[in-house]
Amino acid sequence: SRGxxxxxxxxSTGENSDVYIRPVAMFKDPFRRGxxxxxxxxxxxxxxxxxxxxxxxxxxKAMEACKDEHPWFGIEQEYTLFDYTGKNPYCWPxxxxxxxxxxxxxxVGADRVKGRKIVEAHYRACLYAGIKIAGSNGEVMPSQWExxxxxxxxxxxxxxxxxxxxxxxxxxxxxxxxxxFDPKPxxxxxxxxxxxxxxxTLAMRQDxxxxxxxxxxxxxxxxxKEHIEEYDPTQGADNARRLTGLHETASIHQFSYGVAHRGCxxxxxxxxxxxxxxxxxxxxxxxxxxxxxxxxxxxxxxCLGQ
Length: 306
Prior knowledge:
The chain contains nine helices and eleven strands. The chain is an alpha+beta fold.
């Protein structure tokens, strides 16, 4: 362990500013390259307890408790690019709005796609670092993008997603762009941004696994409120702007699930229904969620009965 001055990061006060950091994961540094590394650390208070901002410690305990079930996760991280001021969406008209949503999703062409160089540079940097990045695509709103990380087992999901976010923000600096993880960055008839979380256990991936998928979904549905409180950093206030029942979301006030239904809280992919096994997708986590808090809450509900 070593101590850092955490006052300026809002993690402590000047009267007691030291917070201990402990390395927990390492990745190759795509910026300095060579023998340099990026080190992800946990934070601990002076009394050696996990710092209140450290969601990884609790998550790791939960993952260790259910490691025999081999929980896998894949997270779809959506985000929105802004110009250097952080106020104007990247390459949007200065005194107006682009055309309505429709042609931008997975689009091609300079009239539809904004920021692809940032996306491609981020992807290559993640590959170099050893992040388990698995894809990327343009999203429904112009200047909004998504990339996928996973499958990752257990605590690895949070580690890889947090470092991929760091790399994204560093890459965006080179283009004088700012990354927003706000779940509803532009009010009105524009899609919000989520962190759709795909989940499976070994039993779900084996023949007949649909029985275990349904059991897990129904258990999660009984704890809808508890999950919503962990799915953004404001106990649901951020997500309330996004989960309205519109723009491919379910209402934050009601839990639902269905096959191939993107207007539900949880979606079962059509192929999984056909195969009678596989995984399910929780569509409620916000783009600014803490992946440790999300995956922690999920395994506590579906694996540990908490």
